[in-house]
Specification:
Layout: H1 3-16, E1 22-28, H2 30-45, H3 52-67, H4 79-89, H5 105-114, E2 118-123, E3 151-157
Antiparallel strand pairs: 1-3, 2-3
Helix pairs in contact: 2-3
Length: about 160
Amino acid sequence: MDRAAVESFLVECQHVLKPGGVLRIVVPDLEVIIRTYIDTLQALERGDLSMQTLHQQAIEALLGQIVLREASATAKQRPLVRWLENRFLGDAQTRGETHRWMYDWYSLKAVLERSGFINVARLDPNTSKIPMWEDSNLDVNCDGTIYKSGSLYVEGEKG
């Protein structure tokens, strides 16, 4: 979502939620990505070449969110299927796989509060104010593992 549209989107979420309703937002955690990048960079500078792959992954996590052209599942297809999917389903941006802005805890909390949400809290994949959350398996796999590690889990209530 384009950064300029975020607050109006969140205000609309406020509008459609019932009193006491909860909005849960899960995004890549900018702080985790940047810390990983810095840690791996420092390790490389000390001569620890075993960190090269993790360092490259940190760069891809940071920049890949913005510059991704082809949807991740499509990129793994055979050439004809790739062409068909790109032609008829569109690129990564059209399919909503790119991020137009990234958030850390403080910036996401601030935009939620500016949009009228109260009791904004940072949670983990297994915790939510949403009733029966533990049965949803949205942020954890059926075996209990985290679906998207490195994510930021934030909830706010309708004010």
